[in-house]
Amino acid sequence: MAKSEDPRVSRMELPKNDDGKEVLESQENWETYEVFHQKKRGEQHVHVGIVHAANPEMALILAKETFGRRRATANIWVAKSANVYATDYADADMFETTPEKTYREASDYYCMDRIRKYQKEHGIEDRKDLKRKQKESAKEKKD
Amino acid sequence: MTFNKAQTDAIKELLFKMADDQLIIGHRNSEWTGLGPMLEEDIAFSSIAQDKIGQSLALFNILHELGEAMPDAAAFTRNADKFKCCQLVEYPIGEYDFSLMRNFLFNQAEYVRFEAMADSSFEPLAKIAKKFKGEIKYHTMHANLWIKQLGKANTESHSRMQIAFDDTFNLALGIFEPGANEDLLIKSKVYPGEKALEEKWIETIMPVLDNAMIKAPARFEWKPVYGGRKGVHTEHLQPMIEEMGAVFRLDPGAEW
Q: How far is CA B48 from CA A38, B24, B27, B36, in A?
């Protein structure tokens, strides 16, 4: 076979220093852009990572393949990382007691017993119960 | 619409040159995988290369339905003189400026060609042209971006892109080498013919080049490099084909 012209097969020659070590020239670093991916129109854009780019247009073009090549995509946003303002990790103690404040969560209210009682008194069927019964009977028919 | 023998042969000729173009440039561009100038661009360029090979598979599938060899056999067992790709696509990848410029000129031609094929009277071709429209649109967006970016970044990048353009333009004109049986295809509305595509291509690329301050030669200075469509190739194609098909030829009957 003739000599390959694919540089991965016949490695590209890198420039060498006086001491024989290979050197790579330093390059100016581009800015980073945060990438937000939307799966379906109407859904939220979700942060998926960053890309390096010289400008927003390039960031969009590169984000499309970096984050969109293996999943359904409706839309992509990019925003310069430098434009993102963040809380300081040193101030993370301000979030510390949040997990204790369960009274802020709907699940923390015990009221199902009262709802069931009301439903029974007024002859209202519980929707969840109804669904469960439908499922069971459907299953029985199948068997 | 049904086609007679002569028309079908002309369609096959068209399909082979399209399939070979997509396959060879796809493989060449994939030689950048792992060597791209930066991670994100490496991913994007590799992904575009894969798209092109996928498009060539779709074209080889149509050829197979028309009685030609299976796609793998068509791609991996022919010698260079049986390939109908233009010479532009077979050159080694060179440096990134060359690859980007070739990619730009090729992608815009690809876009114009597939756009025209969407109205083809040969339905299988119209179908895949519609299917790949979005993919190819992205390829041109990516290509335009780099021409604009590097054309305007600094004097070094600009002069590199100008040199890359000077090196590739006449080769790119070879994409539109007239086909022997083109008139049959134009008459039966399979596609509008190479001359029409070339005109459309020129209209598309010139504003992008102007914007990047890359100068194109005047029309009377154009020297299209023809021959590829007739199986005349550079010395670069045969070694590439051998390398591309090396694994396949170890055991052509293997199931993957």
A: 22, 13, 11, 13
- Report the complex ipTM: 0.87
Question: Chain B: nearest CA to A65, how far in angstroms?
Answer: 5
- CATH level 3 topology of B5-250: Ferritin (1.20.1260)
Burial degree of B253 (CB within 10 A; 0-12, 13-18, 19+)? exposed
End-to-end Cα separation, chain B, in angstroms: 36
User: In angstroms, what CA-CA distances link A6 with B90, B96, B205?
Assistant: 12, 14, 29
Please count the other Cβ atoms lying within 10 Å of the Cβ belonging to residue B185: 23
A4-35 tens-digit pLDDT = 777 666 655 656 666 666 555 544 568 899 99
Domain residues of chain A, as ranges?
Answer: 31-83, 103-142
Which of A9, A62, A69 to mutate to test binding with chain B, by most B CBs within 10 Å of its CB? A62
Strands (DSSP E) found in chain A: 31-38, 46-53, 75-80
Spatial distance between the Cα atoms of B63 and B229, rounded to a whole number of angstroms: 17
Contact criterion met (CB below 8 Å) for B37 and B157: no
Judged by DSSP in three states, A75 sits in strand
Q: Among all residues of chain A, which has the CA nearest to that of B49?
A: A65
pLDDT digits (tens, 9 = 90+) for B119-166: 999 999 999 999 999 999 999 999 999 999 999 988 999 999 999 999
Topology of domain A31-83, CATH: Ubiquitin-like (UB roll) (3.10.20)
Residue in the block written with tokens 């179908």: B127
> Where exactly are the structural domains of chain B?
5-250
For chain B, the C-alpha Rg in angstroms (whole number) is 18
Buried b (16+ CB within 10 A) or exposed e, A14-24: eeeeeeeeeee
